[in-house]
Design brief:
Elements: E1 5-8, H1 17-31, H2 38-44, H3 49-60, H4 66-83, H5 96-105, E2 109-112, H6 119-126, E3 134-135, H7 149-158, E4 165-169, H8 172-180, E5 184-188, E6 199-201, H9 209-217
Parallel strand pairs: 1-2, 1-4, 2-3, 4-5, 5-6
The structure holds 6-O-phosphono-beta-D-glucopyranose and magnesium ion.
The site of magnesium ion has 10 residues, from loops.
């Protein structure tokens, strides 16, 4: 089947905000006296704000009133917003603009499927908002990654079938979401971590659309 769209995750795929989420979550965990390391971070990549905090308090084995929970969510987001304050187009990962230009030339639609409620702010700061044909709204889907909802919502918004889409993710939860949506999953990062991806590139700078397209075309539909 011909590729009709490529749907990208944001944090950790188009820019290095994954690192900022890590710093902000680590600060919250440490404040609660809970250790938070890269392994925890890997599990939280792609996971929404509420479920990330749930993971941290469950790890620490602590109980929490709704008030404190909501207060910590707001505190984490405030810290995150401070960290992304200075983001500008120079923070786009190498290879993103070239990749988008290749897709546009080939008449392939470009979508955004981020779990972040700050996604619009970040792509605005990066100056790439006009390049997307459809931007998913994390706040409006019933279930976040690893559920397929956000990827399916973007395919719908782009008016294409999920089976004709390629999804690009840096997170284990995101690759699961793409697979559940019956799209072709491309990982950005460590192939030993993103084991459920059909293809993995170390970074967006290594992303080769021809290679993806060839692999996609030779994969039997499921
Ligand atoms: C995902 C990130 O894209 O968005 C997670 O990978 C983050 O680390 C999640 O927690 C939610 O982001 P936000 O901006 O809504 O708190
Ligand atoms: Mg990500």
């Amino acid at each position: 089947m011909k590729t009709s769209a490529v749907i990208f995750d944001l944090d950790g795929v188009l820019t290095d905000t994954a690192e900022f989420h890590f710093i902000a979550w680590k600060a919250i965990a440490n404040k609660l006296g809970i250790e938070f390391n890269q392994e925890d971070n890997e599990k939280l990549k792609g996971v929404d704000r509420e479920n990330s905090l749930m993971y941290i308090i469950e790890k620490g084995g602590i109980a929490m009133e709704a008030n404190q929970f909501n207060h910590l969510l707001a505190e984490k987001n405030q810290h995150y917003l401070t960290l992304i304050n200075d983001i500008n187009p120079s923070h786009l990962f190498d290879g993103v603009l070239t990749c988008f230009a290749t897709l546009k030339k080939a008449n392939i639609k470009i979508g955004l499927a981020s779990a972040s409620k700050n996604a619009n702010l970040v792509i605005n700061k990066l100056g790439i908002e006009p390049l997307f044909d459809f931007i998913g709204d994390a706040a409006s889907v019933a279930h976040n990654k690893p559920a397929p909802d956000i990827f399916l919502a973007v395919a719908k918004g782009l008016q294409v079938t999920p089976q004709s889409c390629i999804g690009v993710e840096d997170a284990v939860a995101g690759i699961s979401a793409i697979n559940s949506a019956k799209m072709f999953a491309v990982g950005i990062g460590d192939a030993q971590v993103l084991t459920q991806a059909k293809l993995v590139f170390a970074s967006m700078g290594d992303f080769e659309f021809d290679t993806v397209q060839t692999a996609f075309l030779s994969t039997p539909a499921t």
